Amino acid sequence: MSPFAHIGNIPVEEWLPFLVPIVALYIYGRRKDRRRRAAVDRLPDAGERLDEHTVEQVLADLSKAKHDHVVPEHLPLLWPPGPDGLSVAELAKRADSDPATVERLLEDLEDHGYLDLDSGESLADRHAWLTFKGYEVVDATELALLAATERATGAAQGTADCPPSDAQSAHQSR
To answer: Which letter, b or e, does each residue of 32-59 get, where b requires 16 or more Cβ atoms within 10 Å of its Cβ?
Structure first.
């Protein structure tokens, strides 16, 4: 039996078995990524205030991921998709906060190595650029927010009468 075609000098029958798993992994990855993006789109806006219990859960998850320097005031700035490439004025608008406060919080994040802040004359000229550590904390924040909202929706769906620990175990047993 002659091969269907050749790519270079390699017959199709020799490379086809290697291509199928790669295509399958690519399709799986895209589907998983779309589901995660859809879940992130369902998160409340960065300017909306989270309840105290959710903030505590998110900070506990960040602490487990070794990001102990993040405080509740940083959360609106680290909200998905993160501050990368945005100016101080844009972040203040997105977080529904005062630009001077946002600048101070960004400088605090810069001191801890999460981002680099451009030096500019005005707030519109100062842009935040995530470092590798910053991408890690934004990803960890996204995962923690998704987990906290999932726990909250699980508690709201029929287990709201239970204490939080019972609500989580009831949600996990479903």
So the answer is: eeeeeeeeeeebeebeeebeeebeebbb
C-alpha distances (whole Å) from 92 to each of 19, 43, 155 are 47, 19, 32
Distance CA 42, CA 157 (A): 17
For 118-133, give the DSSP string.
---SSTTT-BEEE-HH
Neighbouring-strand partners of residue 115: 130
Q: Give residue 104's pLDDT.
A: 92
Paired tokens of 31: 């589907």
Q: If you search the block for the tokens 């991408």, which residue do you land on?
A: 135
Question: Is the Cβ–Cβ distance between 77 and 106 less than 8 Å?
Answer: yes
**What's 158's DSSP letter?**
S
pLDDT along the chain (174 residues), means of 10: 61 69 85 82 77 86 88 87 88 89 92 88 83 90 84 66 44 40
Backbone phi, psi, residue 7, to 5°: -115, 110
Contact 91, 83 (CB under 8 A): yes
